[in-house]
Every structure is written in C-alpha cells, then in structure tokens.
Design goal:
This protein is α+β, with helices and mostly antiparallel strands. The chain has one domain. 41% of the residues lie in helices and 30% in strands. It contains 4 helices and 7 strands. Strands 1-6-7-4-5 form a 5-stranded mixed β-sheet, with helices on one face. Strand 6 and strand 7 form a beta hairpin.
Length: 162
C-alpha cells in the first residue's frame, strides 16, 4: 500500500507540473498579444513615400519658382497665398490627396493588403493636412519625417494599416 500511495503522489505531481507549464504558455501568448495598442513598425516603403511627397513640386508659385510640398507646408503655416491667389493650405491639401489617390501602393479595400492609412502633416501646435482612409487595425507600418524652418518643427507622419 505504501508503494502505491507514493506512485499516486508522483503521478499527481507530474500532472500538476504539466498543468503549470500549460498555464505559463497560455499566459505568455496572452501577454504577447498586447493590450490592444496599435503597433507601429517603420516601413521603408512609407519612408520613401514621405520623402517623395515632400519633394514633389506643386503648381503653386511664389513668383520665382513652383514650390515643393515641403516649402508649401511652410507657406501654409504662414497663411500665404500662391501667386494666382489660391490659399497655400488648400493647394497643399489637394495636392497630397491627389498624390495618395493616384498611388497604387495605398489602395484600400477588403481584397487589398492595405486596410487603411493615415497621413498627418503639421507642427506641434496645428495640423495642416490630416487625411485618413479605410480602417485602422492593430498592425501598422509607417514613417515620420521631421524638418525645421526658422525654429519651427514640421512633421509628416504616414501610417499604413494592414
């Protein structure tokens, strides 16, 4: 009888150890899923997109040259107008919207790998461009580009949701 009781205790201990290991594995998976926060990974595709957008030449002229969007952002912040009387912010918004809509990389839809995107351009105090399309998901990839003029910090952020 004593030997049989010891075997039962050892069997019970093995079961307890197996259950504990399973619980630790389940707990690890639950913690790895996160707290529901959106993950943000740097994307070289998004980084290249931002650099290209900021260097894109708009149809807004200051009288000497047509402004790239980076310079147009500064004109927008200073409430300036193009030589033809259009508001710099309106031109900035419509140009960026046109670029994104023509880009085949950011097509949003159920059958597309990209479920949504968000582009924000502005300073710490104000947003000059805020374009969103599709749905936000927990998986996002994007990039941030910062540039400075006369002590003002401008920032463009682009996130693509997958």
């Amino acid at each position: 009888m004593d030997k049989r009781a010891q075997e039962e205790i050892v069997g019970f201990a093995v079961i307890v150890v197996i259950v504990a290991i399973i619980l630790v594995i389940i707990l690890a998976f639950m913690l790895n899923k996160g707290t529901g926060k959106v993950t943000f990974q740097t994307s070289f595709q998004a980084e290249s997109f931002i650099h290209s957008v900021l260097q894109y030449t708009s149809d807004c002229s200051d009288g000497l040259t047509y402004l790239p969007l980076q310079e147009l952002t500064i004109s927008c912040d200073n409430n300036e107008q193009c030589i033809d009387g259009r508001n710099a912010c309106d031109v900035l918004n419509s140009t960026i919207t046109s670029i994104i809509s023509k880009s085949s990389s950011w097509n949003v839809g159920e059958n597309s790998p990209v479920k949504g995107y968000e582009l924000v351009l502005g300073t710490e105090e104000k947003s000059m461009v805020d374009i969103k399309a599709g749905n936000s998901t927990l998986d996002s990839r994007g990039s941030i580009q910062t540039f400075y003029r006369k002590g003002v910090n401008y920032q463009m952020t682009f996130k693509a949701y997958y």
